[in-house]
């Protein structure tokens, strides 16, 4: 068990790491110009004065820039981790020094993970931010009186019964899996309050999921293994936004062959037309050197596939939960397991073959690397910051709308895109008066 330091409204690994964390946050902020502009405006206008934000996010240097922007806007921020292995302990320490209430450390066990969520709920947040929906779904379980070990841990922290959901005006969700979970809850009527689907807005998924996950997943694999991608056969399960980004980056690094495994014919065709082979995992298992899952589904790589794999293959996951590679199957096939390098477990199988598992099957880009590059998170977290401001401004309207999952307003998405272009020095073409009239004519059927 990891030793933690507990203080006045924080629990982290080691407060003495703060100076190192401050440098990391400075580096990220220097590469997040849009969020910096939003922070400057927030500092002047204080749109979040008196608001408590409860956030369950990967505690990285980029998240630090987001929560500091919210704090500059007047919010009090409580932050817990959205994954037990993604917390950057030096960043957590710097945030505590900056007055953010952080409950997160690298290597938290299940008890610590839910204790941290409990501490965020206990702060009576007005707005929640999630990456994977663990915070919202825990609040929903409290609301609907559901039991279970995780809820019991949270209840212990909360000490007393209460309407823990009633302080919340709305929330925003960062990732695909979280949005899928929340839409399912909305359909069955268990969503405790309205949610903005940040993941689904173009300035998020078109950049973060494709190019962010693409680069950082390959980065995680390279940092963990120090392996050459050139010449390898790389198998990517799921040719969605993340999988496509990963496959294109692997191709760009000289992979001899990139294979996509898909269940959706449109996605399979996209892969094929982008020069990627498509086949089922049962066939890909026989030829792949590196396997990467990015589906949001479970058991994508299981026993029957592991039994066919070559000696020395590498398995990594980029999907939100550690369920895509069936770890029980891997354990059952193995006669021994050893951590051969940080974030690399070597499984020796009965027949002498070795299979290497990276980052315990959790998000390899966050466990073995630093998550997405700051400049990509600039857009995702600008969407999140503006979503928080929107929820605060529109809280009365939201209440009337009911507990549904909403798209991020288009003007937020356009603002972020325009500011990012400006920051990158990208100049846009402007329509002439004649062109405007011509297009208007088409729309009105008079052209
Ligand atoms: N690592 C990260 O930093 C990061 C960033 C963003 C999203 N994510 C996570 O990655 C996962 C994928 O996200 P996305 O935005 O690419 O979603 P997506 O819906 O665009 O893509 C998922 C793809 O997987 C396919 N698929 C589903 N089950 C499959 C199976 N059993 N075998 C093969 N293919 C299957 C689907 O058809 C789809 O094309 C989610 O869990 C998401 O939360 C991770």
Describe the structure.
The chain is α/β, with parallel strands linked by helices and about 450 residues long. It folds into two domains: about 5-200 and about 395-425, Adenosylhomocysteinase-like (Rossmann fold); about 210-365, Rossmann fold. It contains 19 helices and 17 strands. The strands form three sheets. It has an eight-stranded mixed sheet, sandwiched between helices. It has a seven-stranded parallel sheet with strand order 5-4-3-6-7-8-17, sandwiched between helices. The mean pLDDT is about 95. It binds nicotinamide-adenine-dinucleotide. Nicotinamide-adenine-dinucleotide binds near residues 261, 267 and 320.
Largest β-sheet summary: 8 strands, mixed
Helix content: 40-55%
Radius of gyration: 23 Å
CATH topology of the largest domain: Rossmann fold
Number of strand segments: 17
Small-molecule binders: nicotinamide-adenine-dinucleotide
Structural class: alpha/beta
Strand portion: 15-25%
Which parts are unreliable, with pLDDT below 50 for 5 consecutive residues or more? Answer: none
Total DSSP helices: 19
Alpha-carbon distance between the two ends: 71 Å
Average of pLDDT: 97
Q: What's the number of domains?
A: 2
* Shape designation: globular
How is the largest sheet built, in terms of strand order?
11-10-9-12-13-16-15-14
